[in-house]
């Protein structure tokens, strides 16, 4: 078959010269993306307006539709795209310009979807500004108090989990992976946890589509990623083979991106509060343990002795989980150069700490602000000062 002879007539002409539909669409997507990006950067209030009016409609329509499927459309689409690319390469290899044209069209479409479903949201007001929480520098004593409270909550959770599950030893290996029904249940609990925290923080209120476990989660593991928000399909994807206690927090973290909050440290905080306020015991355990990792890392720098004494007070199951978590992520060290800031122990860059009041990074500062607020309203389920 001589494919070179199947030249299709072009429908468009510019100054009498043929202009393909591919080129026209590429230009349209690229121009629309550029204009929207410029509007978000230059027009004050545009990003915030978009995030609370247009973006929720996208989450409520495209996100809701994608949520029907129990698997990740992004993941499936990625594999299909790779196959399509190879087929296109084989069929059109004598015409490199055609391949290039298709690639550019694909790239401009992805840029457009990224802009609509993610890029503009970077210019909205951050959660910290909308939460009503007072974020301020804190003393190392306050940080110690928070960690001490977290350790006590972890202790309580482990005790409850032990009685519910006939012993809760903590995780020591990847196998067995959580079953599909179990993952579906985690997804439902995550949606409920986010909807519930939306009652406390109106900025988080609204519909949340179901999160998706990736079939080939190893793709995320080698990048040291717990989860990934796909702006192309408005899907919250997560790693199903990582240490289990990461899953509830990651689900809520990724779902917070579907409310338009893009900052990683804020998503970590939102994931934390959604989990610790959840009705599900394992979600609460996940939230407290992740909170411990963030705040504990900061305390280890600010007050190493205080950190060591609190760490020794953690129940064995939690220590086992933490140690397996480190070993798991360590096994992927160096595989890929880019390391995600989402990974537990390495997430918060250690700061040049000094005595007295200081900032511990936005996630911990928000945790401290929430802890202070709850201590005032005393509705935190147990005394925050114990
Ligand atoms: Zn994220």
Automatic annotation (TrEMBL):
UniProt keyword annotations, A-Z: Membrane, Transmembrane, Transmembrane helix
Membrane-traversing stretches: 65-87, 99-123
Pfam families reported in the protein's UniProt record: DUF3810
Matching InterPro entries: DUF3810 (IPR024294)
Protein name: DUF3810 domain-containing protein
Species name: Candidatus Enterocloster faecavium
């Amino acid at each position: 078959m001589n494919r070179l002879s199947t030249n299709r007539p072009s429908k468009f002409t510019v100054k009498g010269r043929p202009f393909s539909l591919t080129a026209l669409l590429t230009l349209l997507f690229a121009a629309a993306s550029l204009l929207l990006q410029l509007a978000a950067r230059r027009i004050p209030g545009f990003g915030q307006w978009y995030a609370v009016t247009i973006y929720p409609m996208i989450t409520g329509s495209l996100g809701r539709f994608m949520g029907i499927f129990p698997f990740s459309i992004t993941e499936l689409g990625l594999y299909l795209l790779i196959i399509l690319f190879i087929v296109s390469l084989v069929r059109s290899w004598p015409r490199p310009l055609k391949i290039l044209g298709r690639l550019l069209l694909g790239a401009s479409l992805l840029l457009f979807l990224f802009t609509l479903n993610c890029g503009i949201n970077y210019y909205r007001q951050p959660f910290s500004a909308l939460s009503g929480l007072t974020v301020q520098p804190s003393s190392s004593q306050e940080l110690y108090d928070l960690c001490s409270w977290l350790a006590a909550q972890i202790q309580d959770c482990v005790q409850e989990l032990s009685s519910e599950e006939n012993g809760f030893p903590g995780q020591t290996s990847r196998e067995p992976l959580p079953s599909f029904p179990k993952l579906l249940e985690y997804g439902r609990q995550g949606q409920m946890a986010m909807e519930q925290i939306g009652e406390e923080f109106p900025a988080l209120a609204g519909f949340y589509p179901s999160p998706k476990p990736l079939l080939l989660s190893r793709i995320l593991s080698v990048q040291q990623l717990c989860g990934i928000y796909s702006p192309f399909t408005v899907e919250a994807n997560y790693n199903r083979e990582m240490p289990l206690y990461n899953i509830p927090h990651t689900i809520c973290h990724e779902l917070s991106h579907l409310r338009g909050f893009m900052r990683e440290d804020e998503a970590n905080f939102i994931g934390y509060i959604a989990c610790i306020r959840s009705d599900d015991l394992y979600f609460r355990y996940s939230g407290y343990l992740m909170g411990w990792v963030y705040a504990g890392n900061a305390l280890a720098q600010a007050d190493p002795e205080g950190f060591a004494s609190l760490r020794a007070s953690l129940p064995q199951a939690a220590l086992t989980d933490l140690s397996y978590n480190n070993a798991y992520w360590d096994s992927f060290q160096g595989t890929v150069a880019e390391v995600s800031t989402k990974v537990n122990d390495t997430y918060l860059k250690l700061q040049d700490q000094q005595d007295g009041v200081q900032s511990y990074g936005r996630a911990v500062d928000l945790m401290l602000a929430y802890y202070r607020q709850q201590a005032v309203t005393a509705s935190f389920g147990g005394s925050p000062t114990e």
